[in-house]
Amino acid sequence: MAKATLDDATRRKITDLNDSYIRAIDDDRLEEWPVLFTEKCLYRITTRENYARGFEMPLMEGISRGMLIDRVTGYRRVNIYEPHRYTHMVSGLAVEKIDGNRVTCRQNYLVIRTMINGEMTVFSAGIYYDKILLGADGAMFEERIVVQESCRVDTLLVIPL
Q1: Strands 138-148, 37-47: pairing kind
Q2: What CATH class does 8-148 carry?
Q3: Quick check: pTM over 0.85?
């Protein structure tokens, strides 16, 4: 697909949105994560194999901001898990389509997981496929589909990628 051209202000809005997303997760400010999405949205984590075949069986999914808030609430109050943190690396922002105030783009990601004992591992790597709504004050995700390269899923997938 041909790459669309962005003006600097629009690119900055998309970059700021991605930076806010990463900071909310990596800085353990997960309560800030759902507000980066529109009220009606899609957040899905899937594997490359399922994505390529058109299978919609997600590893994690939310179809509204309310569901994303519930995910964070469950993480904070209900789930039992070994404490850990993420460090994100993102690169290769490619804007594929601009349609009025909506932008379709993709970006590579890598997540390093650090356990409480200090062990660090590559937890997930793949591509973010985004549909972003642009506004006067910034941008919000209408859709973020996280496609991880590996079909192997660690049981500690409790924090959004």
Answers
A1: parallel
A2: alpha beta
A3: yes
